[in-house]
């Protein structure tokens, strides 16, 4: 906030003796827009010593008028009061909102008719107004009724037309429309050469608008960056509070710099809203400083927000004659909170020996030092020295942003160090894990070998061994064994030996790329035999696996197909063979069909068809389903895995 703007937010009539003090306190927050000490009349004339004209301001007066008072009625008015600029009429007319006319009588005496033009500069008109030169209008605000235009911090200058100037006495009439509690009145008025007036205007614009616009841009930019950082890192609330404080500060400054009206917002309503922006900013900034130091004072924070909320509600529900008091109390509240924050943070920095925290404490300490200097100038009405706060505000915003950047850089450095340490740890653990995996792999290989040996021994004992024992008993008890029976025994032994070999050969075996590749070797061997025997064969195979089978499943199906096709060649007398492989509902289905003489499927259970029984055992061993359907002219073997 600013000194002149701060006085607009407090009801001066309630605490007239504290006016200067609390205006100075508010000056600590953001700077000054207008000097509050009165100026002498000679200071308002900006002419070089060698100028061929002499300009003298005779007096400056003001008077209350009604809205109906016209420019032609001004000379008829009495009870004019002499004032000094800048003038805030609430010191004279308590609680007055309305129109005040200012009359500036000045004289012009030139030695020659060919002279440099004169110009007029007005620092501020609070809140809106119009300017006349010898009763001729030279400028008027856009809105002289609510919502009023905002010329209170917008300096303006005009080159005076020579045709309207007189030798001798001239007159400026300035109509000001103001609102009580908003420091209504007129700022400094300068008369001089255009060059001097433009220079004075540019200086005022730079100190009271440009610097604050720079502050606004810096604050919003840094606030946006802090907000993005907070979005990515919600745990670190420091950036969130800084972003909120920057946003509220930006809204406050935007209202300070605005010159146009806001639809449906009257001057007093806008002042209330802007005061709430200021209250929110001070509380958010205070919490930001605490979070930056890693501190939380929940009870105090809640008390601050509760106080601000109560004050905000009071602003909008209190009667109009109490608005000034509430504005003043809120102004006093934010002043005390901000100063207490600056002072208390020194203690936090003393107890927390970190460079970034102490740097922020140094900035807050600089706030106090800068404002003590400016307060001294205000209290002593010293016009020879320059206020520091307007120049320090943008630098302060940059300094605070540098601290946040420092904090981010520290976090990045910590992350990089952590990543480096983590990388080294990962490399070390990876090496240990690799050694462990190598040892585990060797153990697994040894275990697999033992499992293979154990499985082979079980297969030989339970399969081939049992068949040998049964065959030995059968031979021992049978006196006459025909050739066919003996061949069946040998087939049984052969099949058992094949199963033992197959169970071991599946380890490390690869699954064929497609069903066509799987059937290629079988198809090549048997198609040639079928052609020699004049047997027609049809093969239906899909182009790719829908669900890839295991190597053992592929081997089982291959052995079943070989055995079935061999039996067809030997026994069926068929003329047509169909082989199909399909996949349905997560099942792999093999079907082999012929049109031969057929057989009785029940003989499989009796062991009379060793080959069919071997196929059935092989399928059941891997959890499959083996089906046989046979009659004269059709035999179907179906395997479902």
UniProtKB/TrEMBL annotation:
It comes from Acinetobacter guerrae. The chain crosses the membrane at residues 211-232, 239-258, 270-290, 302-319, 325-347, 359-379, 391-409. One of its GO terms (molecular function) is protein histidine kinase activity. One of its GO terms (biological process) is phosphorelay signal transduction system. The keyword Membrane applies. The keyword Transmembrane helix applies. CDD domains: HATPase_UhpB-NarQ-NarX-like. Residues 455-641 form the Histidine kinase domain. This is histidine kinase. Its EC number is 2.7.13.3. Keywords: Coiled coil, Kinase, Membrane, Signal, Transferase, Transmembrane, Transmembrane helix, Two-component regulatory system. It catalyses: ATP + protein L-histidine = ADP + protein N-phospho-L-histidine. PANTHER family: NITRATE/NITRITE SENSOR PROTEIN NARX-RELATED (PTHR24421), NITRATE_NITRITE SENSOR PROTEIN NARQ (PTHR24421:SF10). Residues 426-453 form a coiled coil. Residues 1-38 form the signal peptide. It is an enzyme of class 2 (transferase).
């Amino acid at each position: 906030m600013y000194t002149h703007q701060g006085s607009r937010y407090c009801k001066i009539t309630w605490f007239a003796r504290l006016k200067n003090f609390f205006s100075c306190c508010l000056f600590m927050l953001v700077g000054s827009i207008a000097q509050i000490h009165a100026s002498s009349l000679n200071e308002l004339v900006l002419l070089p010593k060698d100028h061929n004209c002499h300009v003298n301001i005779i007096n400056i007066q003001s008077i209350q008028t009604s809205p109906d008072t016209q420019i032609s009625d001004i000379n008829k008015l009495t009870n004019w009061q002499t004032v000094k600029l800048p003038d805030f009429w609430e010191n004279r007319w308590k609680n007055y909102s309305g129109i005040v006319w200012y009359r500036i009588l000045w004289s012009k005496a030139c030695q020659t008719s060919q002279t440099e033009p004169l110009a007029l500069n007005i620092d501020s008109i609070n809140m809106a107004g119009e300017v006349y030169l010898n009763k001729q209008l030279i400028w008027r605000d856009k809105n002289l009724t609510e919502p009023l235009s905002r010329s209170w911090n917008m300096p303006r200058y005009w080159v005076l037309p020579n045709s309207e100037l007189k030798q001798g006495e001239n007159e400026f009439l300035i109509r000001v429309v103001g609102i009580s509690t908003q420091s209504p009145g007129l700022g400094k008025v300068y008369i001089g050469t255009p060059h001097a007036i433009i220079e004075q205007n540019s200086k005022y614009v730079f100190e009271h608008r440009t610097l604050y616009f720079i502050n606004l841009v810096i604050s919003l930019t840094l606030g946006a960056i802090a907000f993005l950082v907070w979005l990515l890192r919600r745990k670190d609330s420091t950036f969130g509070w800084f972003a909120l404080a920057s946003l509220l500060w930006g809204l406050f400054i935007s209202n300070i710099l605005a010159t146009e009206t806001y639809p449906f917002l009257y001057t007093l309503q806008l002042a209330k809203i802007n005061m709430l922006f200021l209250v929110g900013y001070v509380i958010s900034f205070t919490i930001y400083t605490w979070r930056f130091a890693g501190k939380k004072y929940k009870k105090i924070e809640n008390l601050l927000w509760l106080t601000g909320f109560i004050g905000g509600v009071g602003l909008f529900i209190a009667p109009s004659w109490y608005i000034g008091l509430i504005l003043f109390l809120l102004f006093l509240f934010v002043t005390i909170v901000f100063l207490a924050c600056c002072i208390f943070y020194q203690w936090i920095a003393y107890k927390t020996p970190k460079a970034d925290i102490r740097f922020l404490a140094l900035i807050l300490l600089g706030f106090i030092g800068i404002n003590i200097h400016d307060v001294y100038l205000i209290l002593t009405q010293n016009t020879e020295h320059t206020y520091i706060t307007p120049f320090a505000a943008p630098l302060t915003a940059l300094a605070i942003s540098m601290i946040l950047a420092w904090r981010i850089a520290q976090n990045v450095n910590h992350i990089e160090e952590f990543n480096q340490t983590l990388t080294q740890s990962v490399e070390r653990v990876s090496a240990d894990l690799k050694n462990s995996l190598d040892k585990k792999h060797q153990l697994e290989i040894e275990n697999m070998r033992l499992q293979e040996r154990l499985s082979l021994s079980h297969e030989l004992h339970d399969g081939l061994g049992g068949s040998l024992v049964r065959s030995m008993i059968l031979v021992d008890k049978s006196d006459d064994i025909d050739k066919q029976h003996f061949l069946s025994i040998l087939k049984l032994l052969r099949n058992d030996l094949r199963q033992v070999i197959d169970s071991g050969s599946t380890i490390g075996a690869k699954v064929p790329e497609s069903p066509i590749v799987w059937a290629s070797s079988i198809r090549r061997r048997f198609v040639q035999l079928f052609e020699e025997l004049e047997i027609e064969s049809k093969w239906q195979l899909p182009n790719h696996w829908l669900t890839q089978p295991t190597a053992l499943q592929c081997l089982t199906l291959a052995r079943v197909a070989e055995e079935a096709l061999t039996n067809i060649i030997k026994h069926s007398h068929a003329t047509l063979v169909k082989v199909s492989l399909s996949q349905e509902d997560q099942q792999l289905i093999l079907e082999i069909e012929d049109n031969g003489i057929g057989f009785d499927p029940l003989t499989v259970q009796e062991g009379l068809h060793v080959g069919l029984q071997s196929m059935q055992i092989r399928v059941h061993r891997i959890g499959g389903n083996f089906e046989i359907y046979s009659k004269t002219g059709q035999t179907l073997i179906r395997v479902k895995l």
